[in-house]
Amino acid sequence: MDILGEGWQRALGEVQSKVSRAAFEGWLKHIKPVSLVDNLLTVAVPSEFARDWLERRARRPLVRALQDAAGRPLKVEFVCTQMQLDLGVDTSAKSQPSQRPRGASDDFGSTPLHPRYTFENFVVGNSNRLAHAAAQAVAKSPGRSYNPLFLYGGVGLGKTHLMQAIGHQVREHSPQQRVAYVSGDTFTYHVVTSIRDDRFSTFRRRYHSIDVWLVDDIQFIASRERTESEFFQAFNALYETGRQIVITSDRPPKELQVMDPRLCSRFEWGLIADIRPPDIETRMAILERKALQEGMTVPKEVIHYIATIAPSNIRVLEGALIKVTAAASLLGREISLALAIEHLRDHAVDPGDHPPSIAAVKKAVADHFHLEVEQLTARTRAHNIVLPRQLAMYLARELLSSSYPEIARQFGGKDHTTVMHACTKIKEKLASDSHLQAVVNELSANLQSGS
Q: Can you say which residues are annotated as belonging to the binding site for ATP?
């Protein structure tokens, strides 16, 4: 069965029966198969947001349905094609008979900008201050300040936010300016379809007529000779006529694996600004801004705890906040530190870090209460020992997800039901004891940061 024709329709119909009408109409209805090479099926989607949704919510049923229709294993790759936006191009040629293959269209446009990616919604800190200032300067005087502007940094640090904020401000203050935002893989897709459909004259006319060109994740064009060549030509055409170019990448220009060294040289003509992981004050400000945007009231100690356990990625940071607030809403509970600790176990250790040991938890608690570690495991029920011991057991359970028997062994061979009782008592106290909440917050932060 032709997977690009009848097979595709059959698979889509199968998926339609398994998702809501809103999901199908909003996301699945508009995707199209582009090519099948060996076992790789390339599927065009209208935006980055659509691709993210499909990856999270529909990849598995769609691949299964396509494999059933094709009668063989398939790999599926989602690539962004662009919703056509007017870039001020002469369209008189459309009245002439077209020699392009049937179904081809002049869709070399710009991906829509995210409405929240504005300067007003960007939290400035020491880690991104230079990049933010440069982006604002470019937005005020495109083509005259820092051209090109090259922003680089890790995933989820705000590069795309700043880039799109430039686009929003230019469109607001200079609506006659033609702004185009594309990702590196989208540009690659446009090059591929231009070769396939023999549409390079249209491709170049569109890309060479932009006033402000925002290119996200440039690393995705690396080592693709024809794509690099077309990017080089578009870059030169815009730069030489004073148009603004803004580029983002996950690495500095000198580390890009490009085939044409002239590209790296051109990236260094303007300003290169890095965006580093935010410090804890900036992370807390980001969470407070997010809570305000969502109309949520989140206690300061919860903000601090989340900022401590999700230190390097803003998306993970905001995701952790949403998880806590969702848990509170769904379970009918107040947002509290105990709730955050309970539901953020999978966020508790940053990828690549080593989690603290039970021994480290015991030492941290003993130091806080001015005790010796041995006192926490001693057979005594003295009040000044019982609470710290219970707290240490609770932290070992909540932060490390250690089993009750393992915690019991580490605390002098006690019965595991003693550990269960300790964890229950601390949870009960946390619901009403603000001082204990502060102690847990401080100890958790110190243990996660290794201090």
A: 156, 158-160
